[in-house]
Amino acid sequence: LFMNKNFGFIGIGLIGGSITKTLRKVYPDCTITVYNRGEDAREMALADGTANVATDIVDETFADCDYIFLCTPVEHNTTYLSQLKSIIKDDCIITDVGSVKGNIHKAVKELDMEENFIGGHPMAGSEKTGYENSHNHMLENAFYAITPTEKSSKDKVDEYKQIVTDMGAIPVIFSPIA
What we know:
Elements: E1 6-10, H1 14-26, E2 31-35, H2 39-47, E3 53-55, E4 67-70, H3 74-85, E5 93-96, H4 102-110, E6 118-122, E7 143-148, H5 154-166, E8 170-173
Parallel strand pairs: 1-2, 1-4, 2-3, 4-5, 7-8
Antiparallel strand pairs: 6-7
Helix pairs in contact: 3-4
């Protein structure tokens, strides 16, 4: 079902890198496009076979993505949302991995992107940071909070829950707290 999905990542540090590596493991034929400010992480993701495409700019490279994960510090995610708004296809789902949901859900509403957004937060991590410390089993048995908007379709939420489950995590649905 998800083998040929196209996944985009804005930021591939510890969490973004772990999700990309996990998706590569569970969906070997998927396409993974990554953006990262730092060149080293981009080069590592290409070299280890995780990423199909690595870029240093958020642009039309992400136009074919089915899912885009915002994996930068929460204060930057809203900026990337507005950059992606004019690029994404109609049924693309943008998600994030931030622990704080108020700002991102407010921005999604202001940008009229509620149908394209389902918040997420894997309850996983490490004291270490960076792509070099990411691994494809970080999400195993971790709770993964999912915060749909009022306009998220049930089908898309169910699909996202399945992706989270396939990655070995345990999806838990929450309403975003304003």
